[in-house]
Amino acid sequence: MYEILDDVIAELHAGRPFALVTLVADQGSTPRAAGAEMLVREDGSIAGSIGGGLLEHTMMRAAAEALAERAWRRESLDLRGRDLASGDEMVCGGAAETLIAYVSPADAELAAACAGLREARDAGRRAWFITVSPVDDPDAPLPGRVEHCVLDESGALSGAAVCGVDDLRRLTAAAALHGTATLPDGRVAVMERVEPPALAVVCGAGHVGRAVAPLLAGLGFRVVVVDDREQFASAERFPNAEVVVRAFDGALEAVGVDERAYVIVVTRGHVHDLGVLEQALRLRARYVGVMGSRSKRTRMLAALEAAGFSEEVIAGVHTPIGLGIGAETPPELAVSIAAEIVQVRSGRSG
After folding, report:
1. Considering only CA atoms, which of 180, 172, 181, 122 is closest in space to residue 150?
2. Domain carrying residue 267
3. What's the predicted TM-score (pTM) here?
4. End residue of a domain, out of 70, 103, 136
5. Does 39 share its domain with 134?
6. How far is CA 177 from CA 32, 126, 135, in A?
7. Which residue would you say has higher pLDDT here, 300 or 28?
8. Angle, CA of 155, 160 and 161, to the nearest 5°
9. Is residue 292 part of a domain?
10. Residue 86: pLDDT band by 50, 70, 90 thresholds?
C-alpha cells in the first residue's frame, strides 16, 4: 500500500472518485503476489501495479466500469495461456482474483485508514492494511461496499470498525506477509502487512554514492547520505535523500542504524571505509557492503579479524560490493549494488 499511499491521499483530498484494485488471490505463477494494489482514476491513469500486461489491462477496464457504476466487483483472470502465440492470453501459468472498490471522495474511513498508515510509516511501526470484501448476498444486513482499516503494531486502529481490535490482532498474527482471513461476521478480509521503509545509509557522497542513492529511494528505502565534505554532501546533489554532513566516526549510530538497516560503504579512502565497516558490524546492520578491490578486501577482512570480529560476522560482509554483473562505471556499480540489496531484502541467496 505504501506504493500508492500518497496518490490515494491526494485523490481523496482533491475530491476525485477513483477505483482501488486489490489482488486478492494468486494461484501458480503470477506477476505479483496477493496484496498488490493499483489505483485507477476516472481519466484512466493509474498509480501502483498489480503486475502489468494483460492482467493489469483487464482490471483497468473492469475498474472503469466500477467507476461508472459506482459499485464494487470481483474479477478473476486465468493467466495460463497455451503458448507464446496465444494472442491475448498470458503464459504465466497461474490465475488471479481481484477486488475492485469504487472509492467516493467522501470516504472518510479510507481517509482515516490512510492517515493511520502514514502515521505508522513515519513512526517506523509495522502495520496491517486490511481490505474487507462485502458479502455477495444482497439480502444480508452487512454493508454493500468495500471497507478499509489499518491496525498498527501499537494496537491503534484507523478507518472502518470492521471488528474488534482483539479479533484483528489474532487474525493478523496468524496471517503471512499477505493473506486472507474470515472476520467474526463471516466477511473475508485481505490482510497486507506493511513494513516501515528500511533505512539505507550511503557512506560517501562521491560518484557511486550519488548514483546509488536515487535508486535506493526508488526502491522504497529511506536513504541517508553521510559525508564529511560539504561540497559533496548537499541537498542539491541528493534530492531524494536526507543528507548528513559530519565526520564518519560515530555516524552510523547517530543516524539510527540497527539490525534492520542497510549500509553502503563507498567513502573516499580505506581508513574511512574500515571505520564505518566496524561501526556497521557492531550495530549488526542487516546488510553491509564495501566498495573495493579484492586485495583491499583481503587487507580489510584481516583488520576486522584482528579487531576481534568473528569469522561468521566477517563472512556476512559484501565485498566487493554488488552483484557480479561486470559493472565498471558509477551508474553500473549503482545497479549492481541496488540489485544485491534487493536480493538480501527478499531473502534470496546469491
Report:
1. 172
2. 199-345
3. 0.73
4. 103
5. no
6. 13, 11, 24
7. 300
8. 65
9. yes
10. very low
